[in-house]
Amino acid sequence: MSPDVTRQSTLATGPDPLSLSEEEDGQAESGPAPEGVTNDLVELLFFAYRDFVGDPDRMLAEYGFGRAHHRVLHFVYHYPGLTIAELLDILRITKQSLNRVLKDLIEQGHIVQKTGRSDRRQRLLYCSETGATLTAELTRVQVRRVARAIADPVADEPTGARDGNGFAAAQGFLMAMIEPEERAAVTSLMARRARSRR
Amino acid sequence: MSPDVTRQSTLATGPDPLSLSEEEDGQAESGPAPEGVTNDLVELLFFAYRDFVGDPDRMLAEYGFGRAHHRVLHFVYHYPGLTIAELLDILRITKQSLNRVLKDLIEQGHIVQKTGRSDRRQRLLYCSETGATLTAELTRVQVRRVARAIADPVADEPTGARDGNGFAAAQGFLMAMIEPEERAAVTSLMARRARSRR
DNA sequence: CAATATACGTCAGTGTTGTTGACATATCTC
DNA sequence: GAGATATGTCAACAACACTGACGTATATTG
């Protein structure tokens, strides 16, 4: 509880210090963003992304692959014929990093290279049958999560703020992206901040 | 371009194969989700999150800290008095992993520990003045990005799909979370998939 | 009070994924 | 043919996660 804090000199223990302090609300014509809500969105994005990549992570682990492999598979699957340079630009990693995981995927036959037609220096990347099957499975669970979050956003009571703008929508979407069993924990955590702000 | 594909036997190079194939649209009463749009959201989430953590990453790098330090600072800052166990549950990492970064932050005086009052085994975590100042700065840029994305979502033309549900809203929000200079690249990438799907 | 459980810290080893720097090879462009 | 470009590779290193094992302080319980 927040009264446990003894206001020691060097400690900045105040209820969610500074936070936003009438942060620039970028021309939001329907009133300024309530300070706490945006903080919630920042954290919801963290939790949502964690669960979003959690499913694929677990599935890939069974193949001995990691998240880096997933990203390569994903973009090669969805954009067949991608070149190395394009993939590097998408992933924003070094070619050495890419090559390590790409080599795994090629050796295991999930991705194949084809020499470019117009430019024979290029190695166009494609998924093999097995790579496509695997990636389709990964995509399926991620698409399902997103589609459900869009279709059934979680109604927000904690903040209570009924803002016609996108705050409530974004919050509902992100909360719905979180694993259902974990939503209560997230909600009660954020309620703790809201409480200490009173 | 997709006609570059020569339909080799072992290659699954079709235009965005399987993808969704009338994926379960979980009781979406306003029509099923167009297959491509949800795929876009999956990728937008990747790009949005990348830029979302990019700013703090760069700022922390100057202090010799990384993303793990940021996460600890963030939650200790926003939830002063957090215990180790609570933090572990939030971050979902092992105590060894936490301890490594936490030790850095404590040694450098950004975080302080206080023995719990009711339970003297607990180490309650608080930000020091410097830790609070640093974290407030990190929070500021993240909150600004989110607040702007909510206030000025990016209108979607690429998909053209005008769906009253949350798809357009989510897409606009996530696209607005992406660094402005990079949006064109993302849009043209996803247009490439849409093109190959015709 | 003694036994057990809990909260936390730490040592040691390992794996994934990122980095930098240097260098090689094939191919395209001028 | 010279130089730029696309890709591959070797080596070293760092951040951040993991497992397993063990130690200490404090709380709880029979």
How are the SSEs placed, and which strands pair?
The structure is a homodimer of 198-residue chains.
Chain A: E1 11-12, H1 35-61, H2 67-78, H3 84-91, H4 95-107, E2 111-115, E3 123-128, H5 129-151, H6 166-177, H7 180-196
Antiparallel strand pairs in A: 2-3
Helix pairs in contact in A: 1-5, 1-6, 1-7, 2-4, 2-5, 5-6
Chain A binds a DNA duplex (30 and 30 nucleotides) through α4.
InterPro entries (chains A, B): HTH_MarR-typ, MarR/SlyA-like, Tscrpt_reg_MarR-type_CS, WH-like_DNA-bd_sf, WH_DNA-bd_sf
Region (Disordered) (chains A, B): 1-36
Protein name (chains A, B): HTH marR-type domain-containing protein
**Uncertain regions of chain A: pLDDT < 50 for 5+ in a row?**
1-9, 18-30
Percentage of helical residues of chain A? 55-70%
* Major sheet description of chain A: 2 strands, antiparallel
* Distance, first to last CA of chain A: 13 Å
- In terms of structural class, how would the helical and strand content of chain A be classed? mainly alpha
Biggest chain-to-chain interface with counts: A-B, 77 and 76 residues
Q: Count helical runs of chain A.
A: 7
Could you tell me the radius of gyration of chain A in angstroms? 22 Å
Instruction: Give the DSSP E fraction of chain A (strand runs of 2 or more residues).
Output: 5-15%
**SSE pattern of chain A, N- to C-terminal:** EHHHHEEHHH
Oligomer: homodimer
User: Mean pLDDT across all residues of chain A, rounded?
Assistant: 84
What is the molecular shape of chain A? elongated
- Order of adjacent strands in the largest pleated sheet of chain A: 2-3
Number of strands of chain A: 3
